[in-house]
Amino acid sequence: MKQSIQRIIHFILVIVLLATSIFTVFYYWTATTTSDLRSLPTSLLTVIIFYILAQLIKRYVKKSMKWYDWIYYLGLIAILLPLPLFSSEGDWIFSTTKYGSLLLFIPPLIELLELILSKKK
Fold it and tell me: Which domain does 38 fall in, by range?
């Protein structure tokens, strides 16, 4: 019984992670100016905080971390990199945030696939 409750909580957390990462990826892929990357809207910051909280809660539910659980740190660094770099301009900032935001999407996607495949076994 306890195992099934943990599995349900894990599944809900993965769905939350997927939803928040899709929102974040969409924002960064639609950003057109560097000011869009530096002055983040409150809704995006709230979503990023929910993403981080879901990742932390998932650690306590799962008890073990796999290799892809560490990828989201790189994604967080990539999306927050433009904030301290006030004078930087160029396409490299857009490329870093666009492709770096995808690193937030990859771990929950892999976990969702693992959950679906393990359920079939």
Answer: 2-120
pLDDT tens track, the chain, 121 positions: 577 888 889 899 999 999 999 999 999 999 888 888 888 899 999 999 999 999 999 888 887 888 888 898 999 999 888 877 656 666 788 888 889 999 999 999 999 999 888 866 5
Count Cβ neighbours within 10 Å for each residue of 10-36 and write b for 16 or more, e otherwise.
beebbebbbebbbbbbebbeebeebeb
| Number of structural domains in the chain | 1
